[in-house]
Amino acid sequence: MLETQVVVSPAPHIRDELSTEKAMKMVFIALMPTTLFSFWNFGFKALFLVLVSIATCVFTEYIIEIALKKPVTVKDGSAALTGLLLALTVSPGICPDLAKPSTWWMTMIIIVGGVVSIGLGKHIFGGLGHNPFNPALIGRAFLLASWPVPMTTWSWPKNALDWAGANMDAVAGATVLNLDKMGTLQGLQLKVPYLNLLWGNISGSLGETSALLLLVGGLYLIYKGVIDWRIPSAYFGTVIVLSFVFQKDPLFQLLAGGLFLGAFFMATDWVTSPVTKKGRIYFGIGCGILTMLIRVFGGYPEGVCYAILIMNAVTPLLDKLTLPIRFGEVKHHA
Fold first, then answer.
1. What is the rounded distance in angstroms from the CA atom of residue 104 to the CA atom of residue 199?
2. For the chain, the helix, strand and coil percentages under 3-state DSSP, each to the nearest 5
3. Rounded to whole angstroms, how far apart are CA atoms 323 and 334?
4. What does each C-alpha distance from 219 to 27, 30, 212, 297 come to in angstroms?
5. What 3-state class would DSSP assign to 252?
6. Is the Cα dihedral 101, 79, 35, 143 positive or negative?
7. I want to staple 38 with a disulfide (CB 3.0 to 4.6 A). Which of 98, 100, 206, 294 is the partner?
8. Kindly report the CA angle at 305 between 303 and 311, in degrees rounded to 5?
9. Distance between CA 62 and CA 49 in Å, rounded?
10. How do the pLDDT tens digits run along the chain, 334 residues long?
11. Do the Cβ atoms of 125 and 271 come closer than 8 Å?
12. Count of CB atoms within 10 A of residue 249's CB?
């Protein structure tokens, strides 16, 4: 007698050829241009930082799954991608100078970040698919709170400081968002380095400097159907509108900081963003509002990380409020 196993599950039933492994691989491909550019921008220490971060995240996931006697899922690429994203969101200031043994302790910072990202950001909630917050951003937020000085120590690559001229010393060690927040750009009457921000010859986190390369990677993911265009579009649109409201330069607000990295590669995370189409639009709008509020009124010049994490917490509510009516269902009228 043949035994037939029947799987019963509620609608909707979604079938897609895009597996987790394929999606992670495509995101890796999309991030490769900006990752390679970070190596060129900040040198071998950036490569070292990325490798340590990825290795830490993969190893941490392996150890946790073995300890909990769960299936080992490191082959799906999600842990490695978390490690890459974490490395791209941190400052080159935590990169040790391998020629100076006295700085090797700084490697511990990114190792701790990787452990926190996988342990506290992912597996404490049950693993992939159960985490309410983006693991890489959890790790970054933890590192910023624990080691604020190295996490906000910035280096300007190669000839990026040429635009400052005689004011080079006054702007070194800060990002353009810092300079704008402190009024240094206006005080020194410096023109905003739009081309530097576009191409990436500017200070910032490892993977946030080149808006152009991030845009190319983001459009690639949208074209492949890995991410939905609604979240980044609503995010960018809200930032532009609020820039005019707060009398800020909208182009500067778009190009500076981690907006492109966050909008394309963090806010669009399948697990931590809304499922519904309307929910994704509201999610992007919320990210844009919070980002601008933090940038304009907060003490910290960048708001992308915290904006996305806050909206991650709102995701279940957005899904509930924007849930479409089931086919054939009649609304109840009190």
1. 31
2. 65, 0, 35
3. 20
4. 11, 9, 11, 31
5. helix
6. negative
7. 206
8. 95
9. 20
10. 455 565 555 544 455 566 778 899 999 999 999 999 999 988 888 999 999 999 999 999 999 999 999 999 889 899 999 999 999 999 988 888 878 888 888 899 999 999 999 999 999 999 888 999 999 999 999 999 999 998 988 887 766 777 777 677 777 778 888 888 888 888 877 888 899 899 988 888 999 999 999 999 999 999 999 999 999 999 999 999 999 999 999 999 999 999 999 999 999 999 999 999 999 999 999 999 999 999 999 988 899 999 999 999 999 999 999 987 766 566 665 5
11. no
12. 15
What is the DSSP-derived secondary structure letter of residue 16? -
Tell which residue, 176, 115, 178, has the closest CA to residue 143.
115
- Given a contact cutoff of 8 angstroms between Cβ atoms, the answer to whether 236 and 215 are in contact is no
Residue type for position 169: D
Neighbours of 176 (CB within 10 A): 26
Q: State the Cα–Cα distance between residues 328 and 152, nearest whole angstrom.
A: 55
Question: Which amino acid is located at 194 in the chain?
Answer: Y
Q: Which of these, 237, 243, 316, 217, lies nearest to 284 by C-alpha position? A: 237
DSSP assignment of 187-226, as one string? HTTPPP-HHHHHHT-S-SSTTTS-HHHHHHHHHHHHHHTS
Compute the chain's Rg from CA coordinates. Answer: 21
- Angle at which helix 211-224 crosses helix 20-42, to 10 degrees, equals 170
Phi, psi of 48 (to 5 degrees): -60, -45
The SS3 call for residue 176 is helix
Residue 200 corresponds to which amino acid?
A: G
